[in-house]
Input
Amino acid sequence: MSATTPFPPPAAPAWPGPLAWRLRPVTEADLPRLTLWLPPSADRVLPAPHTGERWWLLDTADGPQACARLRPVIGREPLRHWYHVGCVVHAAPSLGLFHQQNTLLLGNDHTGAAELADLAWDPALDLAEQASALQHLLRAALLLVARDRAALGAQLIVELPGWRDHAGRSPFWDGLGRHFYSGDPEAALRRFGPAWRSHVAALLPRQPVYVSFLPAAAQAAIAQVPVAARPLLGVLAAEGLHYGHHVTLDEGGPVFEARVDTLPAVLQVRRRSLVAARPRGEWPSTTWLVAGETGDEVLALRARGTSPQTLAVPAEWVRGPSWTLPLAV
Output
């Protein structure tokens, strides 16, 4: 059996039935569709096997709905940079003066972290469908993160896109980065790919930058996301990730982060044996996520948690010990 397909296809059609949806690896055949979803800055290359990187697709009865890429350890090759949003205080108590200034400090704070990147979804979905697809995608991804915990960094980050104006320009970049690199960021992206930020970081100031020196539009854009990305904010927060006062150096988009071992989903993952369920009419509404010992497939099965050690599933899905997680947050 292939390492990427730990579960055999059922004899009966996959949908409808106990299988609600599945997470699977992206294949070459998926690329034309995903190219329409992904932002220009996203990586469009299938992961090389030796890198440990994975690219997943949420597949449903209505077709693929969302995708995400997991990078197990980032920031070493190439280097990665972010701005830390902090503050300094200038005070003279004897004069009754107190002045607080927000600052931006370029650094490599998330070096060694794992990253969920290139999150994208079918733009034809309505807001409720987007939120549902992203919640399913993230939940299934975290099951695999928990299973493969030893191969990942201690922290997990997600970079969100930054605010852009109606012309598609980034006020944050125009107010800061453009003064140190006058070239076209889009041209640099086409030439160097997503790693272009690693190259341009060498030109940016290493000293703290006072936010008040930036134009008002650039200040207002810090840690803000476009309307299209807002469904992702609630999903990330529900899974325990939060804005950690870091932003991307090109758009000023927020970076959400969390210690992997503190994520609720990771703490809920259990290794259980799958057993054949006895027929009881309709399947219960409880949905469980199930992953094998290896591979990149997660099944969303309507199943019964019969004990802390077992999960009752349809007979055609019975395998050996598996990693499980209830879908509900």
User: Anything to note?
Assistant: Helices lie at 31-37, 127-147, 171-175, 185-192, 196-200, 216-221, 230-238, 264-268. The mean pLDDT is 90. The CA atoms of residues 84 and 246 lie 4 Å apart.
